[in-house]
């Protein structure tokens, strides 16, 4: 399978449109996407590799192995969990994408604290 075919497979398998995927990729300091939907479409048609430096991020967002996406090494899947556009996690990714770096680190700490198990009044542990 060629890179462009793996790229399209990864995006479609994750359930993203081209624009949804681009919206989850890194942005510049002004919050503007560093890759356009048109560039992604060209990459999927094997007409352009300008955005190939985003392959690692694309792999992470699509929940596939970067080694598989870039070099076709190993298997595509890395987790049983992926983000769907209908999941709350997708909204979190969108919001964090627009944050300044210092806010992202604060949000990450907050999310880490929310993920810690808590103890209910009855003494039982509860994972959030």
Q: How would you describe this structure to a colleague?
A:
The chain is mostly helical. It has a single domain, classed as 434 Repressor (Amino-terminal Domain). The protein is 51% helix and 3% strand. The protein is built from seven helices and two strands. Strands 1-2 form a two-stranded antiparallel sheet. Strand 1 and strand 2 form a beta hairpin. It is globular. The mean pLDDT is 80.
Index terms:
128 residues; mainly alpha; 434 Repressor (Amino-terminal Domain); two-stranded antiparallel ribbon; 7 helices; 51% helix; globular
Question: What topology emerges from the helices and strands here?
Answer:
Layout (H helix, E strand, L loop, with lengths): L2 H12 L3 H6 L13 H8 L10 H8 L3 H6 L16 H10 L3 H15 L2 E2 L5 E2 L2
Antiparallel strand pairs: 1-2
> What is the CA-based Rg, rounded?
17 Å
Q: How many β-strands, per DSSP?
A: 2
Kindly state the percentage of residues in helix. Answer: 40-55%
Strand content: under 5%
CATH class value: Mainly Alpha
Multimerization state: single chain
In whole angstroms, the N-to-C terminal distance is: 40 Å
Tell me about the largest β-sheet.
2 strands, antiparallel
**Topology as a string of helices (H) and strands (E):** HHHHHHHEE
CATH architectural designation: Orthogonal Bundle
What is the count of distinct domains? 1
User: CATH fold name, please?
Assistant: 434 Repressor (Amino-terminal Domain)
The secondary structure category is mainly alpha
Q: Order of strands side by side in the largest beta sheet?
A: 1-2
Shape: globular
Mean pLDDT: 80
User: Helix count, per DSSP?
Assistant: 7
**pLDDT below 50 for ≥5 consecutive residues: which ranges?**
none
């Amino acid at each position: 399978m060629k890179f462009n075919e793996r790229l399209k497979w990864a995006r479609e398998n994750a359930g993203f449109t081209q624009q949804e995927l681009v919206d989850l990729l890194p942005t510049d300091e002004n919050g503007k996407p560093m890759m356009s939907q048109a560039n992604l479409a060209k990459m999927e048609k094997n007409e352009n590799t300008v955005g190939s430096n985003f392959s690692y991020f694309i792999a992470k967002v699509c929940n596939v192995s970067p080694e598989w996406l870039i070099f076709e090494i190993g298997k595509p899947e890395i987790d049983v969990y992926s983000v769907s556009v209908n999941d709350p996690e997708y909204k979190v990714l969108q919001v964090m994408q627009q944050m300044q770096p210092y806010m992202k680190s604060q949000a990450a700490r907050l999310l880490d604290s929310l993920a810690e198990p808590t103890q209910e009044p009855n003494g039982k542990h509860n994972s959030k």
